[in-house]
Amino acid sequence: MSEIETLKLRIKELESLLEKERDSHKSEIERIKTDNYSALEASQTRYQGELSIQRENFQRQIEKLKSKLDSFEV
Description:
With 74 residues, this protein is an all-alpha fold. It contains one helix and no strands. It has one helix at residues 3-73. The longest helix is centred in the middle third of the chain and has 71 residues, at 3-73.
């Protein structure tokens, strides 16, 4: 085998290896994106729950203040 043929063969091997690495990294990036999206979704769900609790507490405080105000008006 000549040196040129050897180099061509080595280039093909490296291109094949590069393609395998690309595929491997592509699937890893997709997995990371999926994990990040799931974490973001869970965080948003927790945030919405906390807002709901705060809204309920705020409504209770408003009701207490209204009842106090009503007792002064009587």
